[in-house]
Amino acid sequence: MATKVTTAPGKISEIDRLIEEHGYDDHFHDHHDEDKYKSNFLSTYVFSMDHKIIARQFLITGIFWAIIGAGMSIIFRLQLGFPLESMAWLKPLLGKWIEINPDTGFGTLAPQFYYALVTMHGTIIVFFVLTAGLSGTFSNLLIPLQVGARDMASPLLNMLSYWFFFLASVVMFLSLFLSTGPFAGGWVAYPPLSALPQASDGSGAGMTMWVMSLVFFVVSVLLGGINYVTTVLNLRTKGMTLWRMPLTIWAFFVTAILGILSFPVLFSGFLLLTMDRELGTSFFLSEIYVGGQALENVGGSPILYQHLFWFLGHPEVYIIILPAMGLVSEVLSVHCRKPIFGYKAMVYSILAIGFLSFLVWAHHMFMAGVNPFISNFFVIFTLIIAVPSAVKVFNWITTIYKGNIRFNSASLFSVGFVSLFISGGLTGIFLGNSAIDIQMHDTYFVVAHFHIVMGIAAFFGMFAGVYHWFPKMFGRFMNETIGKLHFWGTIIGAYAIFWPMHYLGMAGVPRRYYSRESFETFRHFSETSEFITIAAIITFFFQILFVVNFFYSIWKGKKQTKRNPYGATTLEWTTPIIAGHGNWPGKIPTVQRWAYDYGKGGREFISQIEPLAPGEQDEGGH
Amino acid sequence: MDLTFRENRRNKIHPWKFALWASCASILMMFAALTSAYVVRKAAGNWLEFPLPNIFIISAVVMVASSVVLHFSYVNFKKGNEAMYKMLLIIGALLGFSFLILQYQGWLALTDMGVFLDGNPAGSFIYAISGLHAAHVLGGIGVLGMALLHAFGLKYKVTEKRKIRFELTLTYWHFVDVLWIYLLVFLLMQ
C-alpha cells in the first residue's frame, strides 16, 4: 500500500503520452499538498483524508459487520430449523442467552435474545453493510477516480463521514454487550416497543444506544452524500460531460441524492421518538395500558412513526440497490467487451427509480390500517417501478447477449446479480398489490422477496465490485479459483435458502415467530425449515472463503503488472497502479469520449482519454 | 483542502456553496417531515386547538431584520467600508441572538397558556419544530461567532477566500431565516 508513483522507467506508455498531450495541468503537485496528507502513519492510514484510503476503511468495516450480521442469522436459523435440539453447546459463546434446564441439561435460546438477533441482523446488514459498506466504499473509491478529480470536494468532511460511521459502529457494537441485551423490537423500531423503555428488555438501554448509533449513522450518510453530489457536479475533469459519465457514477450520484433527501426524515422520526422516550411527549404513543395501569400518554399515533420511517425506508432500498446496479453495469460491459446496451435508457431508468422511490413508502403499511383508497395510489406507483427495473434487466441481458464474455469472479457475480434481481423483482409485483398483501404480509414470502432482491442481490453487486476493483484498491488480484468457488457456493446457497421460503410464505407461515412448534398447520414445514438452515450454514462457510481470499490477497495476491488489466475505458485505470494522493502524478487527463467504446472500429476498446479520430462520432452524444 | 479544485471547477458555483445548498435541502426535508407529520396527526383528530403566541411573529421580524443587516454588512465588507461592516456584523449577530431569546419567550407564553411539552401532540409539535429550528439558528450563531472572530482578529482585507466564507455564512443565515418564516406561516395557517 505504498503511495509511491510507479511509472515504467525509460519509455513512456501510451496512457502517459495521452495524458501528457491532452491532459491539463492544475499545478496540484506544486503545492506540497502531500505533506498534509501523509506526514505520519496516523494521517496516512487512520485519519486519512484520501478518498482511496477512506474507501478501504468503509469496506473493511463493512466486512467486519457482514460477518457479525451473517453470524447472527446462523444462530437464529438454528433456532428455526432445529427448535427441538439442545443449544447448550452455544453457552460458552452466548452466555446467559442460552437457558439451560438444570434437570435435563437441555439448552434453549432465550426468546428475547432471538428477537434481539433478528433486529440486529436487519439493522447491521441494511445500514452498516449494504449502505456504508457498499455505497460508502465504492462512491469513495470510484467517484474521484472515474470523474477525473484529485479528491472529493471536501476531503475533511469525507473523513468525518467515515468516522461518524465508525462511531455509530462502536455504539451499536457495545449495545450487544448490555446486560439487558441490544434492542429487540425489529430493525424498523416501531413504537410502542421502541418508545416505551419498559416494553421489553432491549427497549431500555438497548434502544437508547440503537437510536444514538443510527443518529451518528445519519450524520455519516449526509456528510458522505453531500460530498458525492458536489464532487460529481463540480469536480468533473474537462470533457467529462454528464452523458459521458460511467453508469457507476450515475448510480452513486442518484444514490447520494436519495440519501440527502430521505435520511433527514428518519432523523425527524428519531427526534420525535426520543422525545417520547425521554421527555414524556405522546407523538407515537396512544392510550396504552401496561400491567393494567394506563400510561399518561394521550393522542399519539404509532402509524405516524411508520410513515416517517418508511419515507426513509423505501428510498433506502434503492440506496442499497442502485450502487450495486451501477457496479454490475460497468463490470458486465467491461467483461463482455461490449458497450452497455441502451446507455441513456439506463440513466433515465436510474433517475426514474430514484424519483419513484419517494412515492411508494406506504406499500410497507398496507396492513397497518392505512385507508384502502390511499393504498391504491401506492399500488400504482409501486407497480410502475417495475418498468424502469425491467428496462435495466433487459439492457443487462442484451449487453451479455453475443458478448465476448470473460467468465471471471466479477462477471459471474454480475450475472448472478441479474438473476437474483429478476427472481426477487417478480415477487415484488405480487407484494406490491394491496389485495394480495392481505395474505402475504408478514409471512416468509416477504422475507424471501426482500432478501433476494435487495439483500443477496446487493451483496452480489458488492462482490462483483470487490473482485473487479480489488487491483485498484490494493495493486493485487484476488484468487480467481477461490472466487469462482465462492460464486457457485453462494448462488446455489442463496437460492436454496430463499426459494423454499416462498412456499412457506404462501402457506401463511408468519415471519418473526420464535417457534412454530405449537401450530399444527405449520408443522409439515419443519423439514423445509431444517433444509433452509443447513443451506444457510453451508452458504455462510462459502463467505469465509471470500474473507480469507480478501485478506490473503491484500498481501499475497497476484501482483497487478499492467495499469489497465481488463482493457477498460474508464479513467480509474489511467492512474499509476498504486496511485498517490491526487490520483494522477502529473496532469489530469481530459475526457474525449463516452465510457463504453468497446469493439468500436475493429479495436477491442478505446480509453476515454483518447481523442476522437477525424470524422468519428462520440456515442455518448449530447 | 481547497487545492483539490483550484482549477478543476466546472461551474461558476463554488463547490462549498453547492455543498451548502445540498445541506439546506437536507435540513428542509427534516422540517418537511415534521410539518407533514403535523398535518397527518392533526387530521386524525383528538387535537388541542390554541392560538400561536404573537411572540413568534415578533421573533420572525427580528430574524428578517438580522438577515437584512447582515446582508448590508457583507455589501460594506466588499466596498471596503470597514467600520460599517464591523458594526453591522455585530448588530446582526445580536439580533440573531435575541431571536433565540424571543423563541424562549414564546415557549414561556405557551406554558402560560397551559400548553406543555408533554400532553396533547398539538403542543408538543410546536416545541419540537421550534426547538429543532432554534438548534439550527444556534449553529448559525456559532458561524457568526467565527465571522466576528475573523472581523476583529484578522487584518481587514477583501480576499476571495474571505468573501466566500462570508457568503457561505450569509447563505446559511438567510436559509434559517426563510425556514422560520415557512414554519411560522405553516403554524399560523393551521
By CATH, the topology of chain B is Four Helix Bundle (Hemerythrin (Met), subunit A)
Structural classification of chain A: mainly alpha
CATH fold-level label of chain A? Cytochrome C Oxidase, Chain A
Largest sheet of chain B: none
Largest interface: A-B, 55 and 42 residues
Description of the molecule:
The complex is a heterodimer of chains A (622) and B (190). Chain A is built from 18 helices and eight strands. Chain A is mainly alpha-helical and 622 residues long. Chain A has a single domain (14-285, 298-605), classed as Cytochrome C Oxidase, Chain A (Up-down Bundle). In chain A, a hairpin with a 2-residue loop joins strand 3 and strand 4 (293-294). In chain A, helix 4 (51-81) packs antiparallel against helix 18, helix 6 packs parallel to helix 8 (205-234) and helix 9 runs parallel beside helix 11. Chain A is globular and about 80 Å long. Mean pLDDT of chain A is 92; it is low at 1-9. Chain B has one domain: Cytochrome c oxidase, subunit III, four-helix bundle (Four Helix Bundle (Hemerythrin (Met), subunit A)), CATH 1.20.120.80. Chain B is 78% helix and 0% strand. Chain B is built from five helices and no strands. Chain B has helices at residues 15-43, 55-79, 82-112, 121-153, 160-189. In chain B, 33% of the residues are buried. The model of chain B is unreliable at 1-9 (pLDDT under 50). The chains are: A mainly alpha (622), B mainly alpha (190). Chains A and B meet through helix 7, helix 8, helix 9 and helix 10 of A and helix 1 and helix 4 of B.
